[in-house]
């Protein structure tokens, strides 16, 4: 055919391009070295070299958002409401706050009240939930999204009958479109009988002449038909094992509870009913030999029996009428017993005589024993009238809880509902003591078992000489033996019905241990259920979150054997005195059952005719918020005359002793063996201890200790640790300026308090772990206060920054070590993470947040107050300056003013800081900085600045402790920076001016030193290197939301250069490359990843990123008539301009390209990590509602254009195109990676 007669479309065929494609494929098949991208000169800059990023803030200044049309404006800059401050009200379990009502509080009590009542202050990044960090795409979520996809039906998938039949049904077709669908058949056309098919209709439009533009439009319209909105939904979910960026927000601190069981006392019946009987319940752990709960007192007497005590009782408070209790058990064990003790009104005779009628008489013999019963009732009535305020031991029994749980059966304890399962990336958790206790013996779990109603019929009479807890533990241990000696004893016959069941989640009518109403409490007139305070068998590491200030008094024994006279029926009266006058006894002693809620005095049970009685009594007291030197416990010993005699008083005082509750400012607790005075104590006795032999006083047994008693406090105000007590005392004294004051045996003045405080900071590491963890929020707040607000002593400011920072490092290590069993997958301590996220705040900068709403948002910037993203950031600047865009419309002050403010912010010796390090400007590892003068100086010290400085200049021991928990200090710095910006209204300040240059220098030095630690420790301590690597990456990712992003990019580049230098000499580069890949993935998980890549700069190509084949071949002038535009072609490969503009995307795709190199180290692992990172990001973009618009989605897709050339170059290594060799050779890339690409 002649050239002139050629058809028109033949002129448009690009033969040169086709030839070049064939030549390129030929080179790739032959394995030409030119295919290697590691050091390709065509890219301009080798991939191994990290290119210098653009100055992000300068680029934004030169390209305002209104340049971009429509929705693309949102890609230019972070939204104005990106950073916000939330006030989350602290959860209060009770309807009353429970804080003390005292008008005057000392510094310690005031600090505790503030700590337990202030709301949580949370710094929130509003769009962070859209990133893969907190919104992971899992197999479950992917499956849910696939349910809404349209079924794709293709011609070759349908049979011949289906294609020709007019009534095809959807269910009979073989379809595709979901990974779960049946795969297509192979070669469907091969089974067709072409001769039996009807002729196809002609296509008259096939030979019609059409303009290339019309073909492109038609092809584009066809491509958009039935196109799924989320393309990546068709792919499998990203590999969760590689999701190093995923995090979970910590739970707010809350009150600790173990497994809770509900015990209801239903009825108590004896063979004879002649007098009131009172019950006591408590839990005991035989293995630990410890009482693990406070007492629960109950009264099941009939109204007629209660009437016998009407002369001694007041109107009972409703809280003392409880018949059910909720016990908490943190460490379930097969050795836990529910011990039930019974008491009766004191009467003449020992315990055996009093028990005899109950052991002999039977209900069936009532008529026979009528006279005896009448006589017993009359005697009981007389004793109740005269001695009704006194009790005596009667009987006891015990219920083995493990038997109850095992016999009741387990209610599917091992089943795990689908909805409660956590993703695999949050399940990694070390087992601690509680886990081992819970899993060591399944029969010991009290969290799920069928409720059981018990009828206890046998009680053992109490023995006067064996009333102590030590004797009780022997009895309980004996009860577990088959040949128990207790079984041979004659029992006291009774019927006690109790119901035992797992406690509900939110029980109604429940009272806290402080008798506060626990929500929900529908009706105050309902009979309450009491929560019983637990005394855990072992340490429980949990911070205090509510105000609690209880004191328990346990009299153990009294020895009056040397006391002359008729001193046999001994009873001890206990009073909590605010002074020495009898009228100053405070009503702080909790009532027992059927009595007043609080009383001014309480009595021990009486052991008849015993000069050396033992006691099992427990007195529960509510401590005043402010305990002073005048507060003391007064014990008065009486002899009670059981038989009335003329001229003889009912009770005769025979001794006195006391315990001052404060000793050098500390609450006195622990065991005491006190001497007892025969005489009434003289005036001013309460300031001394009974150990002091006061002149003119007579003492029992020559001033020897004859009274054994123990004090135990359950307090969130008093630490009960000498090191914590000293630290808090010194800090509070400095706050109030009360000099001089007594600290233990020395007087501390202004001249010596500094040294005492420094010593106290050093000795904090010696504190016991349990109280340290319990008061960790207090300790951390005080250390922060010392760092940012140094105390002024004698008119001079004392810099305690270094000492407080070192103390903080050791406290964090101790807390972390104590809670090592409950670390999360990243090795983070949840208690410390919750402190930073919820509790930490800058002292003295509390925002005036409005109350009322359950969640209050404080807008620090005034650009946008709505919940959605603003449609136009640039137009909103007429109201305010963007919180993120460094708009130079803010006129800084004069140079002299700025310099003066900067120089006035800190006067700290920096001789050991970054200046002398390799990271200083001009040093061998200097980081490029673009910081302008800072115009927001603050005269006070800033926590983030001090932390960075102290970390950089710290010694080796402290630095090691900080590195072990670097994540905590990084998060603390980030929240401090955010609060500094939000509370100081500095979000309107251009990002380059938000922080001073010296702080940026410290950050640069810090990032460099931590990065160096990662590199040097990767082979010595791989686990620590992995944690440090992730912590550093998260820190830099957080900084991108707060400060100059160009500066942060320069830090990232400096870290990459560090790693690249180390790779040249590393014995195992694969490990370091793996860490760098994780580092990159975490950085790219930022919620504004697309914006950070500057997608709207002019370098981006204007054409569609995925033109069809037909539209490409129909273009008449692009590739055949002129050379391609270098700017366009550079965006299709990892060129220098692409990696410079799209810095994070360039890093990620570069990691992928290097991993796919044939000579790459650790091929399989790096393939998996690199491809998984890209896959995860693409899935995240696909589901992000911010990128739903087609034009926005096209710009996002442009960030991944180099994937096309990368896949083209890697294709020969992904698949062997020689068909005959396919069965003999394995691909060099893993099959999963192949499908991923």
TrEMBL record:
GO terms for biological process: small GTPase-mediated signal transduction. It comes from the Eukaryota. Residues 548-714 form the C2 DOCK-type domain. One of its GO terms (cellular component) is cytosol. GO terms for molecular function: guanyl-nucleotide exchange factor activity. Residues 20-31, 160-174, 411-427 have a biased composition (Basic and acidic residues). Residues 20-44, 139-190, 409-444, 1103-1125 are annotated as: Disordered. Residues 32-42, 1106-1124 have a biased composition (Low complexity). Belongs to the DOCK family. PANTHER family: DEDICATOR OF CYTOKINESIS DOCK, DEDICATOR OF CYTOKINESIS PROTEIN 6. This is Dedicator of cytokinesis protein 6 isoform X5. The lineage of its organism: Eukaryota, Metazoa, Chordata, Craniata, Vertebrata. The gene is Dock6.
